[in-house]
Write a structure and sequence with these properties.
- The protein has 179 residues and is mainly beta.
- The protein has 1 helix and 8 strands, in the order E-E-E-E-E-E-E-E-H.
- The chain is elongated.
Length: 179
């Protein structure tokens, strides 16, 4: 048995004749919402309101202002997130830009010469409305370097390690997401 999937379809009728054409409807993906970090409005998203309840949020991060944003939502509480197929139901987008500060030391792993450079960092956070790109609030989380981890998976011989901002970010966002 063969099955197939097709995109969502919409039907349009032309005023000039009685023909009907079928065109694919725009599907919103979570990655499309990264544009909100640059102030771009995504009208297909759900409007943010201050009603009680959970207001779904996506998190995007980048390593510096020259980098592009990538999704980091997995560090947020699961109750704040939706399935990838429900991207149009997101109301909020949080955007984090990392700025390294001082290097506090290095962590040497194995005899093969793998090194982890530990940095303190500032994390500039912007919270935006998904539908309009409007800035709701912003803050900077200044965090000290982490201690050397007992284990690290390397993709390069020398890597930089920044402190985890998961807890202070969640504390900042809670007053907007969980009303």
């Amino acid at each position: 048995m063969l099955t197939s999937c097709s995109p969502l379809l919409s039907t349009e009728t032309s005023n000039t004749d009685s023909s009907t054409t079928t065109t694919p409807a725009k599907t919103l993906f979570t990655t499309d919402l990264a544009d909100v970090c640059n102030g771009v409005a995504i009208p297909m998203a759900t409007a943010y309101d201050s009603a009680a309840g959970i207001h779904p949020i996506l998190l995007f991060g980048r390593n510096d202002t020259n980098d592009s944003y990538s999704e980091k939502s997995s560090i947020l509480p699961k109750t704040w997130q939706l399935e990838w197929t429900e991207a149009s139901k997101y109301q909020l987008v949080a955007c984090v830009t990392t700025t390294p500060k001082e290097m506090s030391g290095t962590c040497d792993f194995s005899e093969e010469g793998y090194t982890l450079n530990n940095y303190s960092a500032d994390f500039a956070v912007e919270l935006r409305k998904a539908t309009t790109g409007e800035l709701i609030d912003s803050t900077t989380l200044s965090l000290d370097a982490d201690k050397c981890p007992t284990m690290h998976f390397f993709s390069e011989k020398v890597e930089n390690n920044y402190p985890s901002y998961e807890q202070p970010l969640t504390e900042f966002l809670t007053k907007f997401v969980q009303l």
